[in-house]
């Protein structure tokens, strides 16, 4: 009888953990959020259980990978922490039976947006959450009196390296019109305020 109650308790715990993980991945509106994907410049802490010599801090290089003992290069850019963890487990399995790998983010230095032009504090900004155009303008201290706020552009480069320009008219968004212009920025986006 004890083994049945333990099995039921384990099943209940698994279901509760699954529900809480799903709830944690939901935003305030109940919609699922995509997990953060790593970028060059991010710093990770990697540990392997019972392998103290393999505990280290790693930097995601500009090519999107990091080097790790026994595993070689591990691609991180564009992947979630869980995906990188799984890739590292697969690589280490050739040397360590059933490795238990933990990865946590130490710094999200690769999650940068840039605001340039007629703002009070232009520059690069490391953001710890997804921000939209209005929030980026706020982080940069707002537009100065010389800004042409209805001709703001967001410059975004795709994976192929092609640069495109996305229009943002502050006056419309300020009046509650065409709110779809207030897009979420992606790492590397440049907000240009002429």
Domains (count): 2
- What is the highest CATH level, the class of the largest domain? Alpha Beta
User: What value does the average pLDDT take?
Assistant: 86
Describe the strand arrangement of the main beta sheet, using strand numbers. 7-6-10-8-9
User: What value does the Rg take, in angstroms?
Assistant: 22 Å
- Structural class estimated from helices and strands: alpha+beta
User: How many individual β-strands?
Assistant: 10
Choose one word for the global shape: elongated
Report the sheet with the most strands, covering strand number, pairing sense and barrel closure.
5 strands, mixed
Q: What is the CATH fold-level name of the largest domain? A: Outer membrane lipoprotein wza fold like
Give me the number of helical elements.
Answer: 4
Classified in CATH, the superfamily of the largest domain is Outer membrane lipoprotein wza domain like
Summarize this entry quickly.
With 194 residues, the chain is of the alpha+beta class.
Could you characterize what this model shows?
This protein is α+β, with helices and mostly antiparallel strands and 194 residues long. The chain folds into two domains: 42-108, wza like domain (wza like fold), CATH 3.30.1950.10; 112-193, Outer membrane lipoprotein wza fold like (Roll), CATH 3.10.560. It is 24% helix and 27% strand. It is built from four helices and ten strands, in the order H-E-E-E-E-H-E-E-E-H-E-E-H-E. The protein has helices spanning 2-24, 81-92, 133-139, 170-174; strands at 42-48, 56-59, 65-68, 72-75, 101-108, 112-117, 123-126, 152-157, 163-168, 190-193. Strands 7-6-10-8-9 form a five-stranded mixed β-sheet, covered by helices on one side. A hairpin with a 7-residue loop joins strand 1 (42-48) and strand 2 (56-59). It is elongated and about 60 Å long. The model is unreliable at 1-25 (pLDDT under 50).
């Amino acid at each position: 009888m004890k083994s049945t109650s333990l099995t039921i308790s384990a099943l209940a715990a698994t279901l509760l953990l699954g529900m809480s993980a799903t709830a944690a991945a939901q935003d305030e509106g109940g919609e699922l959020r995509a997990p953060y994907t790593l970028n060059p410049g991010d710093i990770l802490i990697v540990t392997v259980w019972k392998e103290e010599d393999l505990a280290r801090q790693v930097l995601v290089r500009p090519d999107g990978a990091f080097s790790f003992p026994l595993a070689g290069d591990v691609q991180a850019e564009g992947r979630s922490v869980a995906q990188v963890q799984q890739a590292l487990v697969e690589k280490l399995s050739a040397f360590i039976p059933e490795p238990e790998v933990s990865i946590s983010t130490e710094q999200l230095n690769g999650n940068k947006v840039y605001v340039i032009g007629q703002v009070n504090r232009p520059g690069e900004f490391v953001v710890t959450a997804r921000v939209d155009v209005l929030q980026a303008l706020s982080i940069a201290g707002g537009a100065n009196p010389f800004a042409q706020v209805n001709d703001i552009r967001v410059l975004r480069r795709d994976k192929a390296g092609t640069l495109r320009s996305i229009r943002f008219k502050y006056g419309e968004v300020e009046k509650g019109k065409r709110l779809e212009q207030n897009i979420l920025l992606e790492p590397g986006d440049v907000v240009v305020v002429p």
